[in-house]
Amino acid sequence: KAGVTQTPRYLIKTRGQQVTLSCSPISGHRSVSWYQQTPGQGLQFLFEYFSETQRNKGNFPGRFSGRQFSNSRSEMNVSTLELGDSALYLCASSLVIQGAGSPLHFGNGTRLTVT
Amino acid sequence: AQRVTQPEKLLSVFKGAPVELKCNYSYSGSPELFWYVQYSRQRLQLLLRHISRESIKGFTADLNKGETSFHLKKPFAQEEDSAMYYCALSDLTGGGNKLTFGTGTQLKVEL
To answer: Chain A contacts of B99, Cβ < 8 Å?
Structure first.
């Protein structure tokens, strides 16, 4: 099975711009989560989508949004970029098991640099 | 709110020495805990989960609810174990699958 695929791998944007990141989950995985990884804050949960619905949201401002399509592919969008948004954005997919935490399968990430 | 604490940023051991990576958590419910590992230039991947009670690559981790700990152990470190290790707690409230990660411990195995 192909792993989680994230595109693009690298992005350089200017403050105030917006950006869209894409994630294709492992085939059959219907849950897609997004995490932000920075040296200072580590791995922080952004949001999780399942069946095109956001199930969980982390403590990030409304500039961070996402969506999931019917084929389980997901995108996240960051508007009005700030310097502090520079980070590695990781997407992870998982099976959904009711009442149990499912292991996450991570992509390689998109490295976003805001200048 | 749930929290995962990994007190050591860096742990350096010699090859063949025992390894223990510490993880403590706070969570009001019944926790599900994981260890993830990131080798150099590779993606973050699952190492083990407490409900499986498996030994992966010689690593084991026991959930101690009394001490709220989930330390990762290996009796004899190998050079290939050098990596970044993250402890994570699954929050099942709301029916979702949200992980809270610790800040990670860089394990360096020296020859």
So the answer is: 33, 35, 43, 45, 101, 104
Cα separation, B38 vs A23, whole angstroms = 20
**CA B84 and chain centroid, separation:** 10
Residue A114 has pLDDT above 90, yes or no: yes
* Coil vs helix vs strand at A83: helix
CA-based nearest distance B84→chain A, Å: 12
Task: Indicate yes or no: CB of A42 within 8 angstroms of CB of B103.
Answer: yes
Return the number of other C-beta atoms located less than 10 Å from residue A92's C-beta.
28
Cβ distance A91 to A3 under 8 Å?
Answer: no
Q: Are A43 and A83 in contact (CB under 8 A)?
A: no
Q: Whole-angstrom Cα distance, residue A53 to residue A90?
A: 19
Give CA–CA dist A98/A89, Å, rounded: 27
Q: Check if the beta carbon of residue A48 is closer than 8 Å to that of residue A32.
A: yes
Sign of CA dihedral B104, B58, A29, A12: positive
A74 and B CB contact within 8 Å: no
- Phi-psi region at A45: left, alpha or beta (left = phi > 0; alpha = psi -120 to 50): beta
Q: pLDDT digit string (tens) for B2-60?
A: 899 999 999 999 999 999 999 999 988 778 899 999 999 999 999 998 877 777 899 99
Phi, psi of A102 (to 5 degrees): -95, 135
- Whether A43 and B86 lie within 8 Å, measured CB to CB: yes
